[in-house]
Write a structure and sequence with these properties.
By secondary structure, this protein is of the alpha/beta class. Helices cover about 30% and strands about 30% of the residues. It is elongated, with a radius of gyration of 24 Å.
Length: about 300
């Protein structure tokens, strides 16, 4: 299956000499949710803006559904919906008017039924006659998503879509995202809420200092790069880790009632068997144990610090 977005050798250097992107190569699959993660200033928004035709690349090529974003700008732009970080909309227009106007900007014929569906899906229907200026920050964010969906795009970019949105509205938004993906829309999102990427994404890309440092299926990424923690619940409290166990780099937790052993899932030998043997030899008994996998956030932090 050909990628719906294909980025090849993409670079961006500003007049000041600052290089925001360095030879980016990336393919986005049709119908997937792709999470682009990176610290502030990593190049996430610059990359999105170039794909969406808002900014120009210094070099490289971007194809959207086989169309070059520069030669076929109108075609590619009509395939894309963009929800930017900033809340830009006419404060004194009604919700209905501003969303309908956005559809018209793409040369689409009026379709009140589609606008109604979008507003209802985003829980905005009861606000359709309200002026934007009267809405909360979360509701304004929903209006931005409605505007992006007004012209029925095949691809939706969500640049920090839940920034400033309360937990309840955030969950409702992700229900909408799941529905869109189920209907065949390809979704690319950036987020600082890494738990959202962990829950929602099919694949994860990590960008840092203008370079893509990793693209991986989410499950495979966590399997390959994740560490596991073995937590031992001790039968009695200890004040310190015995010296003979120092090589295991154990962490004493739970006010001295827990020992935590961290090991690499990729290693041929985890060391658990020898640890348990050495614990017995040291006279330390435990009543229970459990394991946990590193979260995507922990993996992300380890990658950008590398």
């Amino acid at each position: 299956m050909s990628p719906i977005i294909s980025v090849s050798g993409l670079s961006k250097t500003y007049a000041s000499g600052f290089t925001a992107l360095k030879s980016i190569n990336l393919g986005i699959k049709p119908g997937e949710i792709f999470a682009l993660l990176g610290p502030n200033g990593a190049g996430k928004t610059t990359l999105i803006n170039i794909i969406c035709g808002i900014a120009n690349a210094s070099s490289g090529e971007v194809l959207v559904d086989g169309h070059d974003i520069r030669r076929d700008y109108r075609t590619t732009r009509s395939l894309i919906g963009l929800v930017p970080q900033e809340l830009h909309t006419d404060a004194f227009e009604t919700v209905w008017a501003t969303v309908s106007f956005s559809r018209g900007l793409f040369g689409k014929p009026k379709n009140p039924a589609h606008i109604e569906k979008v507003l209802k899906d985003l829980s905005l229907w009861d606000k359709k006659d309200s002026k934007i200026v009267t809405l909360s920050g979360g509701m304004k964010r929903r209006v931005m998503i409605a505007k992006a969906l007004s012209h029925e795009p095949q691809i939706l970019f969500l640049d920090e879509p839940t920034a400033g949105v309360d937990v309840e509205l955030r969950k409702a938004m992700w229900d909408v995202v799941r529905t869109l993906r189920a209907s065949g829309v390809t979704i690319i999102l950036t987020t600082h809420y890494i738990e959202e990427a962990e829950e929602m994404a099919d694949r994860v890309g990590v960008i840092n200092r203008g370079e893509i440092i990793l693209v991986e299926e989410k499950a495979a990424l966590m399997q390959k790069l994740g560490q596991k923690r073995l937590k031992l619940h001790l039968q009695g409290k200890i004040d310190a880790v015995p010296t003979p166990l120092a090589a295991y780099n154990l962490e004493l937790a739970g006010d001295g009632t827990e020992l935590i052993y961290t090991y690499d899932t990729r290693s041929e030998h985890t060391g658990i068997t020898s640890l348990l043997s050495d614990l017995r030899a040291a006279g330390i008994r435990f009543s229970d144990l459990d394991t946990t996998q590193s979260s995507l956030e922990e993996i992300f932090v380890s990658l950008v610090r590398a």
